[in-house]
Here is the input.
Amino acid sequence: MSDIGVTVTQHLLSQQQEHGGATGAFTRLLNELILSAKIISREVTKAGLVDILGFTGAKNVQDEMVQKLDEFAHDTIVRRMAQSRHLCVMGSEEDADPIEIPPQAETGDYVLLFDPLDGSSNIDANVSIGTIFSILRKQSTCLGYRMEDLLQPGYRQVAAGYFLYGSSTMMVYTTGNGVSGFTLDPSVGEFLLSHPNIRIPERGKIFSANLGYWDYWDQEVQNYFRYLQRPDDTKPVYSCRYIGSLVADFHRTLLYGGVFLYPADHKDPRKPHGKLRLLYECSPLAMVCEQAGGAASTGHGRILDVEPDELHQRVPLIIGSAEEVKLAERYFSGQPN
Ligand code: P6P
Here is the structure.
């Protein structure tokens, strides 16, 4: 191990060696994504100093105002990953349609789904934001791609993770053999192993949800939050922490334990299953959480078992410590303690 510790590239190569017969394609693919994240991190860090803050004036497929940094992050990932030679198609939270690989570029057997800059509405307030990614194997046997390559349940992911642009820039990822965290050392431009083998505590004392939606939740959901806040010496005293930036709220939950919830609600008839997207947010974070010993549920079933119907499908998300997710599921299905 060098004097700066283990870099993420060394970590990837050691994992590659454990996968006998690995061609190195996956390692090269992830290294391209890592470089994209370093470029995004550089822009996010200096965003307050140059004219890259604020809105573009456009709206995305989610009907959300597009931030200049959103667009920069999306374009950076698309441009770099299209040349990675190992993808057959991409899907972005910012793009209504699948992103095809340019005809002159070499294609491969992987699919990349990503949210380029989640939490971007918080950019101007200097709140931590993140990039979420999900990597799957191509399923179709044709040249090019089919929708079946994109619409895969989360249990088929070969890798998933996120980059968190906060007080430091971190990368947290899994390839199905546990979860590792790396912190970017800007002085050498490398992600260094800082959180080997992350394990989420089985229980926690923090719940994370937007209680402003109380009146839009079902009775069972309200009963669950009443229980969490009820003075009762048979249960822990819970704290509520909610940043409104999923990657930051999830990262705290992963390290400290507890539970993050974005339940189904009745505030927008166009989004009866809540706001979060299955393919770009819930499935990748669910793989990370389960690999760290936690759980991720829609409230009535495992996130990773959900069969996607369409590219921008939304699902409710309850994710965190295994025991806390089970408790929420009991309440959500009307069978409290
Ligand atoms: P609300 C950010 O826009 C985001 O997609 C997630 O990062 C975050 O968890 C959620 O929306 C916050 O949504 O409805 O509480 O503002």
Remarks:
- The chain has two domains: 8-195, 206-332.
- The two ends are 50 Å apart (CA to CA).
- Residues 118-119, 121, 210, 244-246, 249, 275 surround 6-O-phosphono-alpha-D-fructofuranose (CB under 6 Å).
- The chain has eight helices and 15 strands.
